[in-house]
Write a structure and sequence with these properties.
It is built from 14 helices and 25 strands. With 479 residues, the protein is an alpha+beta fold. The chain binds one RNA strand of 77 nucleotides through helix 1, strand 11, helix 10 and helix 11.
Length: 479
RNA sequence: CGGGGUGUGGCGAAGUUUGGUAUCGCGCUUGGUUCGGGACCAAGAGGCCUGGGGUUCGAAUCCCCACACUCCGACCA
């Protein structure tokens, strides 16, 4: 299109340089800004609004299953962090410490929380006494700090926002059920709200969370065929409760340790949304979390009645429960089209003098670019219908990308060829040996993503050692 | 943490090789004309060139040292 020449702020093409495209979108869609503190970012109003919508949906889900929100301290005494030794050895390299209080050196240094298992356990050790106190179903929305060496918007911040659920149960069965329930909660959130298809699976021992007995995750494929872990759910057994001396008297009057879980989703998932759905015109937001679901653009708005007509459309949509914005600024219509495409607004509603004569408006979809003339009488129903259609199409496109780029392999050579070529998910059997997992990393450059919960049950061979085995596993290059 | 790249008004760049006190586009402000895919005209405002040392009569430019961002690895969510 000739008009494209006027795009002064065009972003890097997605398939030319995906990393640069990603950074361009984060900045130009006004999601994020850099700060004077290395590795830390500002979530700007539009970026934070996405997070708020994610919070609203997830928080309601958590509450529906009986969880309540709490707030734990930001600082952890070193002695507390050291109680569970796998945990501290996993997190020690990325802890930041507070060593001074005012001008006084502290007797014991305090870790700025990288995660809060130890804080929850410390608290529970004080308050849990009886089986009647269980389960403890807690969650907190907070930020945590990990001293990362490199950072990228949303994908890796030194400080990031997340929610961490922590629960305590009387039996292992109950705790495992909780772990699975929360994994499924995340999976459905991704699929039904974010239009992101996920693989539900268990992590290998090597990829397991520090201190966990089992780690489950949902894995998504980004447009560049790399993997992003969108959420995790851990089963801890009673390792932490034992280390922290949490015990309760059960129904048989026996003093026993309870079983624990934790699960989390962070702002990283916003990076996943961007990299799953975006295109060369910028962001494409899933309608169900888009801060603006429809933007009304008046055309030739100096002409009599146009602005009033546009305003009426906005009011009707707002009354129908649609998150809608009217852009009455004096930028040209074309400028506004490009602007809201960059910001990923799912629907654009145009109204101008010609439409007013016809008692209609124009609705353009962000995902396909398709424009439809809609009689004004059908505005609300059509907008809702299109929002669902956009969601469904976004999901279908993302699923197609994953399916087209998932390959069954039986040898290391095949794995290497695919990883060095276009990339994608590799599906194979795995014998369970760490050496074979490491060989995949060293020779093919891929790490294990997960062992899917749905196992085929068939027998095959490990692509590295050739041994007969039946565990299905996915490999890929991860963010 | 290793290897590359970059740092000049809000953004993107030119100027650096060959030192002489900063240029352009976009954006911003004001006024006017426009408005169906990033409008046009006019008049303005805004930078001691990432920071700190050094060389020099004189440094955006040459030399050291920091810092930040970015890409590729390693590591990690």
């Amino acid at each position: 299109m000739a008009q494209d020449k006027r795009q002064v702020d065009a972003i890097t093409a997605r398939d030319v340089d995906f990393a640069q495209w990603y950074t361009d979108v984060c900045k130009k869609a006004e999601l994020i800004d850099y700060t004077s503190t290395k590795g830390m970012f500002v979530l700007r109003p539009y970026g934070y609004a996405i997070w708020e919508n994610i919070q609203n949906v997830l928080d309601a889900d958590f509450k529906r299953t009986g969880h309540t929100n709490v707030s734990m301290p930001m600082l952890i005494p070193e002695s507390l962090l050291q109680k569970e030794k796998d945990h501290i050895s996993g997190f020690a390299p990325e802890c930041a410490w507070v060593t001074m209080g005012g001008s006084e050196k502290l007797e014991e240094r305090l870790c700025i929380r990288p995660t809060s298992e130890t804080l929850f356990c410390d608290h529970w050790a004080r308050v849990v006494h009886s089986w009647r106190d269980l389960p403890m179903l807690y969650n907190q929305w907070c930020s945590v700090l990990r001293w990362e060496k490199t950072s990228r918007p949303f994908l890796r911040h030194r400080e990031f926002l997340w929610q961490e659920g922590h629960t305590l149960h009387a039996t292992p069965e109950e705790a495992i059920a909780e772990t699975e329930q929360q994994l499924e909660c995340y999976a459905q959130f991704c699929e039904n709200i974010l239009a992101m298809p996920v693989l539900r699976g268990r992590k290998t021992l090597k990829e397991q969370f520090a201190g966990a007995e089992a780690t489950y995750a949902i894995e998504c494929m980004m447009h560049d065929r790399k993997a992003l872990q969108a959420g995790t759910s851990h089963y801890f057994g009673n390792g932490f409760p034992t280390a922290f001396d949490i015990s309760f008297t059960d129904k048989n009057n026996q003093l026993v340790h309870p079983y624990e879980t934790s699960w989390g989703v962070s702002t990283r998932i916003i990076g996943g949304i961007i990299m799953t759905h975006g295109d060369d015109n910028g962001l494409i937001l899933p309608p169900r979390i888009a801060p603006i679901q429809a933007v009304v653009i008046p055309v030739a708005m100096h002409k009599p009645g146009v602005l009033d007509a546009a305003s009426a459309l906005k009011d009707r949509l707002a009354a129908a429960g649609v998150r809608v914005k009217l852009d009455g600024s004096d930028n040209s219509p074309g400028w506004k089209y490009a602007e809201y495409e960059m910001k990923g607004v799912p629907l654009r509603v145009e109204i101008g003098p010609k439409d007013m004569e016809q008692q209609q408006c124009v609705i353009a979809r962000r995902d396909t670019g398709e424009k439809t003339f809609v009689p004004l009488a059908e505005l609300e129903s059509k907008v809702k219908e299109l929002l669902d259609a956009v969601h469904d199409n976004m999901y279908a496109m993302a699923l197609k990308n994953r399916e087209d780029n998932t390959f069954d392999i039986t040898t290391l050579a095949q794995a290497k060829a695919i990883a060095e070529g276009e990339g994608g998910f590799l599906r194979s059997k795995w014998c369970g040996a760490l050496e074979c997992e490491l060989a995949m990393k060293e020779q093919a450059g891929v790490t294990s993503r997960c062992m899917p919960l749905e196992q085929s049950g068939t027998e095959g061979v490990c692509p590295v050692c050739g041994k007969k085995c039946s565990t299905d596993i996915y490999w890929g290059v991860a963010y």
